[in-house]
């Protein structure tokens, strides 16, 4: 297996992008990554497009074939990879293994989603298409609904409090406000959404015990990376980032079938695989992007992957250990919570953010000093298909 | 790159399967392939699901995550791969490269589609979601419409006649009638659909100059293969089939942008890549499955991949050179024309049929005697994303 590096990364500002088609967004992010890679007129051998909903939201299929033409990358091979909200990381995985195999040298991976194509309940319904078609979807359960029940169980079992969740909200919202690519640009204060009598209006219950600002927004967006063998990567301009480890694991489709529904086995396994391949352990990681579609997930994942002991993740967040300058900064991009969560784009955007961290390119108020190693969790379904990466700076 | 072999293959009868859900079909085909591979209780490391339309037709996403649970293959990694009607071959490609890389040992690839979920114009509209969203779809062009225009040009340029097309129809329909997995079980005779005055009723114009029986049906179905390194394959019961070559190439999304719209560049390129990797040439092939969604495509592809010279494919079909016992038997399964074309399943079904041929398991009336090498073309869009394989029998 050849070592594979990321030599280019790019993304477009997430948010509401009514003026852009899905194809526009995929093309913009791709061009930024190709440009960042300094490939110039050189083409790529293959393109992987991560997308969950073009069929439902845009009534389109075969978007990889369309994109490769739009980008003038013909006759490069092109496929779409779908794994719900973990489509982005799954697409990177397939690009990684294709390059690792020796068959392709240069691969573009781009993830995108235009979720604001539909509004109101249709957006929630679109996301719910990932639930079990017989055991869940017909009964009206939504992803926020599942997250609410999961949070209640987690609170009862591990003593997580709303105070802990609030710490995640405030941190990620503050970081998002500093990130030009983030969807939600406003900062929030504790007073307005928690302490004051107006909090009940400003931050209403969404799926008890989760409130509005415990949930990520519905976003449009796209992000891209360019992969090649580490050996070739050294020829390119910027510092390459090695994909040192990768893991992917599945769990039961429905939460109700899990012996302990608070146990996110696929998260634990995917992370273990990634650490094992990288020959590293959680304590070796300098910065992480976790899949905080709901604030509880950042806390639960930080425990399941081994950054904190079970029951300690919430306390760690409240104590500032996951802030910039803390023991392990998490979601310095603002996370899904503030950067936004265009489902097909998210897994790629997480890796793009870590690449920026490991290249030391971010402004001081977001850059983890001298970061050398990064970690991601991209969470498909409600933890039924999870993909993890360990990334490593390669010193020039 | 490790050599990769197919150690198991299975499919379910294509056709109208109102009683089965998409997930049922994917599961049945998978179980047949796993059983055929003799894996017993051993699980697989990863699952690739080829599917084009679950979002549009079943309002479902994340079906790979669901399938891996349904099959009790947890915690195997699982992704969906989509490349329009070439999704099946694209999924096999990704399984191939994943095993070739050394990361996974055992991979299940299953393709399926439940197209009869919708009826009438909705089925044609679903297929048309692969056309260009700005330059084609809004103007009402359909895939049969494109095929009609392509046929007219091909007839004018290369002298293909309706007699040539008829030869493909009759051959594939006759072979389909012998294939228990085929959708269309009836044989047709020349008199009824061509010569008699009733032909105009029995076989009406569908997209001039193509008639009804020049087009494949709209089918439900699923097919699966199990891959592993050739080295491990030798331990398993049946004769392994080596994936000796693979190629994939793209072309402009719209036909109108091609300098010569009769030139299927992506077909030529994908085949060249596959032959090059296999260190073989077209004359080395014993049996082929080509993508005859329309009869003209079998003829055009047989020329573009190098089995016959340009302008000779139609004559070769009419002269019986592509029949069983002929110079190069094509579509001994009945092809898309008679086996059916559940889009996500087709590319996998083609490979399954070649595996049966190379294992010498078919009844005498379909088996190419002593077949040692096989070839496939899976045609995405209207030739905008094409995948090809060269397969080789490994003597025990």
Automatic annotation (TrEMBL), chains A, B:
<dbReference type="InterPro" id="IPR002155">
    <property type="entry name" value="Thiolase"/>
</dbReference>
<keyword id="KW-0808">Transferase</keyword>
<dbReference type="Pfam" id="PF00108">
    <property type="entry name" value="Thiolase_N"/>
</dbReference>
<protein>
    <submittedName>
        <fullName>Acetyl-CoA acetyltransferase</fullName>
    </submittedName>
</protein>
<dbReference type="InterPro" id="IPR020616">
    <property type="entry name" value="Thiolase_N"/>
</dbReference>
<feature type="domain" description="Thiolase C-terminal">
    <location>
        <begin position="247"/>
        <end position="393"/>
    </location>
</feature>
<dbReference type="InterPro" id="IPR055140">
    <property type="entry name" value="Thiolase_C_2"/>
</dbReference>
<feature type="domain" description="Thiolase N-terminal">
    <location>
        <begin position="4"/>
        <end position="229"/>
    </location>
</feature>
<dbReference type="InterPro" id="IPR016039">
    <property type="entry name" value="Thiolase-like"/>
</dbReference>
<dbReference type="GO" id="GO:0016747">
    <property type="term" value="F:acyltransferase activity, transferring groups other than amino-acyl groups"/>
</dbReference>
<dbReference type="Pfam" id="PF22691">
    <property type="entry name" value="Thiolase_C_1"/>
</dbReference>
